[in-house]
Amino acid sequence: MLARAWGIGRSLAMYHGIPGRHRRMVRFYSQFLAPGDLALDVGAHVGSRVRAWRRLGARVVAVEPQPDCVRVLRLFFGRDAGVTILPGAVGARAGRARIGVSSRTPTVSSMSPEWIRTVSADEGFSWVRWDQEVEVDVVTLEDLLATHGRPAFCKIDVEGFEVEVLSGLRTALRALSFEYLPPAHDAALTALELVDRLGPYSYNYSPVETLRFASERWLAADELVRLLERVRPLGRSGDVYARLDQPVRS
């Protein structure tokens, strides 16, 4: 119980307690979202993106598999008609699956046993322990689109489960992001391939939680791969952003 409370407190401090971050987040996402747009947060955690997107006037569907994080989301947004909170996960197919939960570091809880094995061998994760498992419902991105509509922006932050999430998407979205972690470099390249098959996208990269792009211009897929190869030795995570180069038909 103490480990869980400490872990959630740590997440709240990281994502809601840093001065100025919320304002920077609102400014950053204003390039993707406008009032009335739909935003999809896959791996909503404790809702920092939800909070920023609501400030922009977007409607939000927040998907989160960790029960403790779902409680936080309901506490913050449960009375907000513009936010739909969905307990569970997104994957390649609908059904049930288990998430490995790290009570003290819930930011790295993961649906992917392979990812957990991979990052466990990295020095930066040597102190992390995945100490429990929880079974959750799983839907696909296409299921979410059929129920809620096509989002203007979709954030995917699922600790190594990005390939499975994107494998359940057949529709080109206007813009999306997915997490990049150097120890799981090859999986990120597979995720990039899945996105690139959906439509004519341009890409950029934002290191860690800087809310700034590493490149002054949007890149082709091969240019992004070269950028990630330069980032990889630094060992710092970040997010890949994809922007469709032509309008999406509703």
From TrEMBL:
GO terms for biological process: methylation. Signal peptide: none annotated. InterPro entries: FkbM_mtfrase, SAM-dependent_MTase, SAM-dependent_MTases_sf. The keyword Calcium does not apply. Residues 41-179 form the Methyltransferase FkbM domain. Pfam families: Methyltransf_21. GO terms for molecular function: methyltransferase activity. Keywords: Methyltransferase, Transferase. The keyword Methyltransferase applies. PANTHER family: METHYLTRANSFERASE, FKBM FAMILY PROTEIN (PTHR34203), SLL1173 PROTEIN (PTHR34203:SF15). This is FkbM family methyltransferase. The lineage of its organism: Bacteria, Bacillati, Actinomycetota, Actinomycetes, Pseudonocardiales.
